[in-house]
Structure formats: C-alpha cells, structure tokens
Amino acid sequence: MRFQGKIVILSKPEYKEKIKGLQLGAKDLADMDAELIKSYTKLTVYAVGEDVNFCKAGDNVLITPRQLSFSDVVEIDGGAKFVTQESHIIAIYPTISNIIL
User: Fold this and answer.
1) Among 12, 13, 27, 32, which one has the highest count of C-beta atoms within 10 angstroms of its own C-beta?
2) In CATH, what number does 7-98 get?
3) 97 CB burial (10 A radius; 0-12, 13-18, 19+)
4) 82: exposed, middle or buried (C-beta count within 10 Å: 0-12, 13-18, 19+)?
5) Strand pairing partners for 101?
6) HSE, side-chain direction, 13 A CA sphere, residue 57
7) 31 contacts 61 by C-beta, under 8 angstroms
8) Which residues is 4 bridged to in the sheet?
9) What is the pLDDT of residues 16-56, one digit of tens each?
10) What is the pTM of this model?
C-alpha cells in the first residue's frame, strides 16, 4: 500500500479487551481508549506518505495528545492505526542508528 502526501500512519498501542477475566462493553472500551490517548507519548511510525521528509517508518515519535485526539483511526493490515499529518509530530526519539558519534 502506498500513502500520498504528508500523511503519517502511527501504530496504535493495543490493550486486551479482557481484563482479569472480565469482558468489557463498548462504552467501557471507549472510555479506556479516551484515557489511553492521554498517556501516549511514544508512538511508532508504521508508514509515511510520499511527501514526508521529517520521519520514516520505524521511528518512534512524539505527538501531543490533543493532536492525536483529532487523528483518524483506521484498520490497516489487521491492526488499528492513527492517521495524522507530518506537521503534528513534535519530535523523533533518538535511537542507536540516528545518533552521531
């Protein structure tokens, strides 16, 4: 699949629908999802659009919870992903491969 423009696809962290043997209802899952959005601080870039220059697939990035709450959630390759704009990414976390020695 090829993405266009300045679109960034972020992997959405998942949690189990069952917690200690309890099956959660749709409202409870939605409430948990809203709380989870507030705590996202490090998300992995799944894919980028052809015009994205700031980050690449595999990077761990920082995006504000406010911007993340405006992002669409889509299913790609059997998993939930956030769709956001390149301009919403604040920073790329350093990794061994992008540290200059």
Assistant:
1) 12
2) 2.30.33
3) exposed
4) buried
5) none
6) 9
7) no
8) none
9) 555 666 777 888 888 877 777 766 778 999 999 999 999 99
10) 0.75
